[in-house]
Specification:
Layout lengths: L2 E5 L4 H13 L4 E6 L19 E5 L5 H8 L4 E4 L6 H6 L2 H20 L4 E7 L22 H20 L3 E6 L1 E3 L8 H10 L4 E4 L5 E6 H14 L4 E5 L4 E3 H12 L6 E4 L14 H4 L9 H14 L1 H10 L1 H13 L2
Parallel strand pairs: 1-2, 1-4, 2-3, 4-5, 5-6, 6-10, 7-9, 8-12
Antiparallel strand pairs: 9-11
Helix pairs in contact: 1-7, 2-4, 4-5, 6-8, 8-10
The protein binds nicotinamide-adenine-dinucleotide and thymidine-5'-diphosphate.
């Protein structure tokens, strides 16, 4: 495998993945295809921009002409491109269906027509829905709750169909909640860190006792690398961090790291359809050699420090997203 098309890599995880891969495999060529939606940011890729093995193409994964043109000279596609924020999916589900389902189909069709060696589709543990006790295995049924997770589940079913019907060598990874550098500051961890740096309140949905399994983004990248090189075509792999924490515990950790008072916590109306707990069994990918690295507490401390040291990066984004945040606040306030 020498030439990889990596879609959606101007976003959070994709940009970390590209950096990781160029460092680990200096002879690989990486072509990034990204539409640069609100979540895409070329600043995320600035330190790989001058690498001769890196190419950036601005384009939409739904554009079959662009995708087919790139696929002619590629060995594999790794699909990160998606609409990814659950809150936005509640307000505007159509964009999620368009990119996450229809876009994935265009990539699958290109992989089929050009006989690619692999198409690795990045999915999420949210496709399973909520679980009160125990952990989901890859064979469990999908019961997504939000328009986001339903779209990701829809994409996965199309991936499965392309493997079964046409023999396309697909792989799916279902990652748990990521955190780390270059995380768009609308998601829990970067939103809360950046608000707290500015002594702004942080909105905790409902009682704050929802549980997520947090994974450092570079652990996720390592898991995807393992699935890409050692996974079996047609298979799905859970990739988690082994760090199940209630949201309130995460919030307390961030408050503590920044030495900020609990009085900045605001309990707000719960997200509609809010999944209570996510938990995945990662023994299948562990059998291929996957093991998350440092502890959650250490990674959170490093991540907080990254946002303290990279304020230009997130302040530029927050300035641009002001309208959206006002709209969100009103939308939630109207429901109270
Ligand atoms: P992100 O929102 O930070 O980035 C998404 C990227 O996709 C952006 O660069 C955007 O410009 C691009 N994009 C959106 N629509 C596109 C289109 N039609 N054509 C081309 N590019 C398009 O997302 P992220 O958090 O980095 O997530 C990446 C992938 O990982 C997604 O598929 C997501 O479902 C999955 N995932 C995310 C998490 C998480 O915690 N963030 C966990 C598990 C899985
Ligand atoms: P989020 O980062 O949006 O990821 P996801 O919904 O994909 O898991 O949210 C993580 C958890 O934090 C989720 O339970 C919702 C909660 N949350 C808040 O309490 N307040 C917030 O402002 C946000 C964005 C999320």
């Amino acid at each position: 495998m020498q030439t990889l098309i990596v879609t959606g890599a101007a976003g959070f995880i994709g940009s970390n993945f590209v950096r990781y891969m160029l460092q680990k495999y200096p002879d690989y060529r990486i072509i990034v295809l990204d539409a640069l939606t609100y979540a895409g940011n070329l600043d995320n890729l600035k330190d790989v921009w001058s690498n001769p093995n890196f190419t950036f193409i601005k384009g939409d994964i739904r554009d079959a002409a662009i995708v087919n043109n790139l696929a002619q000279n590629a060995d594999a596609i790794i699909n990160f491109a998606a609409e990814t924020h659950v809150d936005r999916s509640i307000i505007e589900p159509g964009a999620f269906l368009q990119t996450d389902v229809a876009g994935t189909w265009v990539l699958l069709e290109a992989a089929r027509q050009h006989n690619l060696d692999r198409i690795l589709h990045i999915s999420t543990d949210e496709v399973y829905g909520s679980i009160d006790v125990g952990s989901f295995q890859e064979t469990d049924i999908l019961e997504p709750s939000s328009p986001y997770s339903a779209s990701k589940a829809g994409a996965e079913h199309m991936v499965g169909a392309y493997h079964k019907t046409y023999g396309v060598p697909t792989i799916v990874t279902r990652g748990s909640n990521n955190f780390g550098p270059y995380h768009y500051p609308e998601k829990l961890i970067p939103l809360f860190i950046t608000n707290l740096i500015d002594d702004q309140p942080v909105p905790v949905y409902g009682d704050g006792q929802q549980v997520r399994d947090w994974m450092y983004v570079l652990d996720h990248c390592a898991g995807i690398d393992i699935a890409l090189h050692h996974g079996q075509p047609g298979q799905t792999y859970n990739v988690g961090g082994g760090n199940e924490r209630a949201n309130m515990d995460v919030v307390k950790l961030i408050l503590h790291a920044l030495n900020k008072p609990d009085s900045l916590i605001r309990y707000v109306t719960d997200r509609p359809g809010h999944d209570r707990r996510y938990s995945i069994d990662c023994s299948k990918i562990a059998a291929l050699g996957y093991k998350p690295g440092a502890t959650f507490e250490d990674r959170i401390a490093e991540t907080v420090q990254w946002y303290v040291s990279n304020q230009d990066w997130w302040r530029a984004i927050k300035e641009k997203q002001r309208d959206y945040k006002d709209f969100m606040q009103k939308w939630y306030a109207d429901r109270q």
